[in-house]
User: Which sequence fits this backbone?
């Protein structure tokens, strides 16, 4: 709202020092980050006290993990802190006419509500299974459908591939400045994305279509929407599985958020997009503002969520964070970079899938189920002390704080690798 107020005053000819600041993406992003941190720090303390008063605590099952039972009764549903700390600064400093911003706000509210209902059922209804799995998937599919349809049919989300500087209006773009109102978009109706490590790395989904003409166009759009649904669902559930240790999901999502913010900023800046020879998306700059604000909210929440945690984010936070990451990636056409950038989410999800199906397979074959990991998701594998006979080389149990920090280090390495894919191809 402050962004629109400043723009209105500027258009009316009002002049005072600093009135033009809101035109700059970096300034709005910095304001959003600082505001989000302050709100999270203030709201976090109040929310934790309220949750403790209402006795809204985590119910812990004894899985034989070191320090696990000490977490019993720790307030959960703390994802509300992240959501509030994110939405308030975005409403203040975001461009609410930008389709990217609106889609990300919708993602936050939609998945936040879905996660909140899941936590509510677990805490107040004392049902450890929470919201029905099919309802969760249906909610994620609806979100993917909305985002996919917007990308297929909303012209404001168009992009320009190749040398963006050759565009007619490019010369008047200033560094770091938001595009002028009414400026024409450099439209490309093709459904394309970036392939890592490949020169001239735009992949056209139409190449996968066996049809030509209108039928091919329809097939491509349907395929693209299905891919988006898969990505958003995978990221949301991957983040949810990663949320199993104090500060783990919070820190990893913050690292991923910084990386996506950088990619969004570069993609929305005509000069940088040309330098890196990537798709230029005129309106993607506000995605950077959103992601910078998200990182601020996560840093503020980490103040209370770091080991030993005073509050857990619950599904209210974890489902929402993964969904935001997935939606952001598809909006800037970098979804094929997610297996690298979100490698932690990928490995955590694979560990659960492999463990489950291997257990079922060995139970059917040998009459007794066997496990590859001591426990899944993977972060608990390094934490669990007892070793089953099926494991030939036991892994020494590590303190929780050490596991979290090492996951941070791996996540940073993956983030750096993701960014350098812009040049290594």
Assistant:
């Amino acid at each position: 709202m402050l962004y629109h107020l400043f723009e209105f005053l500027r258009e009316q000819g009002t002049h005072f020092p600093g009135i033009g600041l809101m035109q700059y993406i970096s300034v709005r992003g910095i304001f959003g980050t600082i505001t989000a941190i302050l709100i999270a720090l203030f709201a976090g303390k109040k929310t934790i006290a309220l949750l403790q008063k209402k006795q809204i605590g985590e119910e812990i099952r004894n899985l034989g993990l070191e320090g696990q039972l000490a977490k019993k009764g720790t307030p959960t549903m703390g994802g509300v802190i992240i959501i509030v700390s994110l939405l308030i600064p975005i409403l203040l400093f975001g461009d609410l006419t930008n389709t990217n911003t609106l889609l990300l706000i919708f993602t936050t509210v939609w998945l936040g509500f879905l996660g909140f209902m899941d936590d509510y059922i677990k805490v107040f209804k004392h049902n450890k299974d929470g919201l029905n799995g099919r309802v969760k998937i249906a909610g994620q599919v609806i979100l993917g459908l909305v985002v996919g349809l917007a990308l297929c049919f909303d012209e404001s989300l168009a992009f320009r591939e190749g040398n963006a500087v050759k565009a007619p209006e490019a010369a008047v773009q200033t560094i770091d400045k938001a595009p002028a109102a009414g400026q024409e978009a450099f439209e490309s109706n093709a459904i394309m994305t970036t392939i890592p490590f490949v020169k001239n790395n735009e992949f056209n989904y139409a190449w996968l279509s066996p049809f030509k003409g209108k039928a091919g166009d329809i097939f491509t759009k349907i395929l693209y929407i299905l891919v988006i649904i898969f990505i958003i669902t995978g990221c949301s559930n991957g983040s949810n599985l990663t949320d199993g240790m104090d500060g783990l999901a919070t820190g990893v999502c913050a690292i991923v958020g910084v990386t996506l913010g950088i990619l969004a900023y570069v993609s929305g800046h005509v000069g940088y997009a040309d330098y890196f020879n990537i798709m230029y998306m005129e309106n993607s700059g506000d995605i950077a503002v959103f992601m910078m604000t998200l990182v601020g909210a996560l840093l503020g929440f980490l103040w209370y969520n770091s080991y030993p945690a005073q509050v857990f984010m619950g599904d209210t936070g974890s489902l929402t964070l993964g969904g935001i990451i997935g939606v952001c990636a598809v909006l800037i056409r970098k979804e094929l970079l997610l297996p690298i950038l979100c490698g932690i989410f990928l490995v955590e999800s694979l560990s659960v899938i492999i463990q489950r199906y291997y257990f079922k397979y060995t139970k059917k074959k040998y009459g007794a189920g066997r496990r590859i990991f001591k426990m899944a998701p993977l972060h608990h594998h390094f934490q669990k002390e007892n070793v089953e006979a099926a494991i030939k080389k036991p892994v020494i149990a590590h303190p929780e704080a050490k596991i979290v920090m090492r996951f941070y280090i791996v996540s940073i390495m993956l983030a750096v690798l993701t960014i350098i894919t812009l040049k290594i191809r």
